[in-house]
Structures are given as structure tokens and as C-alpha cells.
Amino acid sequence: MADKLKDPNTLGFLEAAVKISHTSPDIPAEVQMSVKEHIMRHTRLQRQTTEPASSTRHTSFKRHLPRQMHVSSVDYGNELPPAAEQPTSIGRIKPELYKQKSVDGDDAKSEAAKSCGKINFSLRYDYESETLIVRILKAFDLPAKDFCGSSDPYVKIYLLPDRKCKLQTRVHRKTLNPTFDENFHFPVPYEELADRKLHLSVFDFDRFSRHDMIGEVILDNLFEASDLSRETSIWKDIQYATSESVDLGEIMFSLCYLPTAGRLTLTVIKCRNLKAMDITGYSDPYVKVSLLCDGRRLKKKKTTIKKNTLNPVYNEAIIFDIPPENMDQVSLLISVMDYDRVGHNEIIGVCRVGISADGLGRDHWNEMLAYPRKPIAHWHSLVEGNPRL
């Protein structure tokens, strides 16, 4: 019987007999036992070949992968599919597929950015009347916001930081390339133009619900394209936005660190163009500085309150004791608050400085560390923040 099992033809017959044995119980018991031992022996061989020890399973993945591919050299009969084809077609990682998805994702983002279109406007300053004249000319290639594949666009115009004077164009129905050709006048002294920003917000009009924002354009420097003495046509890309950006104002402060004493001094100098929080058109601002470590507030200190102003001057020093070895673990959250005698104090805006901060907040911190014992001052733009900190 053992010699017969070694014969390949007999082996194929016995494997077939195993399948038949489920429906034909008359096959001799010794044949069934021999076939069972043969299959179990090859099953143990496969398990030992394809499963390395658990302690080295992850580290030796690439080394054992070729050995897994060649397990199919053991013959299990003609009716079974080759085992090597399964891990080859299913388990193999194809980097080109992931790369294609990444490229597609980038293309989708770039297409979304392009889909906001462009806007054409002009600027001119009338020196006699001390008036800035903004002419909204036209928009091009706006995104469709309606189900019909079109939009009903109009434009809001602000001369920041003043948001009380809001002007807007007429609504143009069912078009993605509207021609506005409308003039808007903003009285402003010439010497103030350098501190003003032009803010254009493009909306899609909706009669029955909230108007959808298409995007916005913010021109930080009005003298960027012209000296304003003559009318100059300007094209700008409309930046994607879901809500109007609010100019919260700026704060100037200096940082100075003394490594030998482990003393950090933040001097709040002044603020400008703060957002008005009271019905009077002003605010009662003060500055709160929080020392943070791993997202937890360790200490907080405040300046005095300045009444009825959007441009407060403080010149007040706030000191924290921080050992040099902990300077890379902390950051400062600077919050400009509006004092309210009756209700809760409201937050106007925040900025952050430290190793983990972004942009100017990180650069200001690094500059302070590079020049110890020397006060380093910068203007910082305020952004919306968490009032609980």
C-alpha cells in the first residue's frame, strides 16, 4: 500500500477519492486513512513554510515573501488553482495605483481652486474729494451654484478695516460671466490709504435661502498695481471661501529672553484697527497672555483695560520665569479681549508664538532665542481663537 501511495497516478486517484468519499461512503477505511495522513503531512509543510515565527513576522516580511510565492510547487492535484497566483494578484502592493490616487487628489484640489474664477476691477483716487473710486467691471468663469448649472452673482465691497460701510453690485441672473460696470465711492484721506485693504466678496443670490459665497479677493496694498492717480484695470483670482474673512486687527509686542535668569519678558506695545465689539462702534480692549505647555495653560496675566478705542496703546511688560531647558516645550497665546461690565468678556482675536507656532509666531520666537537679552518687536495679525484658553 505504501508503494502505491508513492505513485503519482495513485496519488491523484486518492485525492479524487477524498472528494468522492463525501458522497460515497463505501471506499475502504484504509484508503481514507492513507489519504488523510498524506494531506495532513503536506498541510503541515505548507504551514511551516508560509508562517514564520511571530517575533520576526513583520521584520522579515520581504525576506519571506518569495518563499511564500513558491509554495505552489507542491502538487495538490489538477483541479485546485495554483496557490502562487492568489498572493501575487491580491497581496502584491502596486505603488502606481496609490500614486495615481494622490495625483488625482491634487488635481481635484487644483481644479476646485480654479473653479472660483476671476474678477476684473479698477481703482482710482480723486484727490479733490478725497475719495477712492472702485469700479467693479466683470467676473469670468464663476462656478455654478444652482441646479440649472448657472449662478446669480453679485459682489460686496468693503474698504477694511471699516465694515460698516458695505456696498454691493446688482444681482445678475443666470450667468457665470457677469458684466457689472458699477462705480463705488469710499471717502478716505490719502494718507490713510496705505493702511486700508480692499475686500471683494462674490456671492450667489438665492431668493429662498441663505446666499452662497463663491469666493473673495483681498487686496492688501492698494498701491500694488497703480499709484491711484489714474484708473488702472486689475484682474485677480477669486479665492475659495465659505464665509467672509473678518479683519480682526493687529497687535505689536516685543519678546526678550534672559537665559541666565530664565526670564521671558513680553511687552505689549499697542494694537491697531481692532474689530468693533460694542454698539458704539468701539471696544474696551485688554490683552491676556497665557503660558501653555502641551496644550495646558500654566499661567495667565493681563494688561489694563483701554476704554472706547480700536487703537489702544499699552507699553506694559508681562514676565514669565521659564528655565532654558523648557523653552522648547512652551508657547504663548496672546488674546485681545473686549471688556464687558455686564456680560461675559468677548474675544476679539488671538495670535500665538513658540516653537510649535506657525509662520511669524515661530519666526518671532526663534529670533528672540537667537538674540538673547535683546527685545524683538513685530506686528502680528489677529485670528479667531478659543476664548476658553
TrEMBL record:
It is a single-pass membrane protein. InterPro entries: C2_dom (IPR000008), C2_domain_sf (IPR035892), Synaptotagmin (IPR001565). This is Synaptotagmin-6 isoform X8. Residues 115-236, 247-380 form the C2 domain. SUPFAM superfamilies: C2 domain (Calcium/lipid-binding domain, CaLB). Belongs to the synaptotagmin family. One of its GO terms (cellular component) is plasma membrane. One of its GO terms (biological process) is calcium-ion regulated exocytosis.
